[in-house]
Amino acid sequence: MSRIDEFTDLKKKVDEIRNKAEQAKGARSQALKQLREKYDCATIMAARKKLKQLEKQEAKVEEKYDEALESFKSEWEGKL
Hints:
Blueprint: H1 3-39, H2 44-76
């Protein structure tokens, strides 16, 4: 393989990597835009904090549901 061919191949690889990097930047920008619009989170760290809060809320709601279901079952056991 000649040096010109090697250079051409390397240039092609560099261009592909640049294109992938630009796509990744665009995807990141779009993801951050969605975080801001949907969840009012300006950064990834803010989104992680929000996620932890939502997971805690979900756990509390799930616990209340389980308690209510058990209460319902014990009250209506044998009546339905």
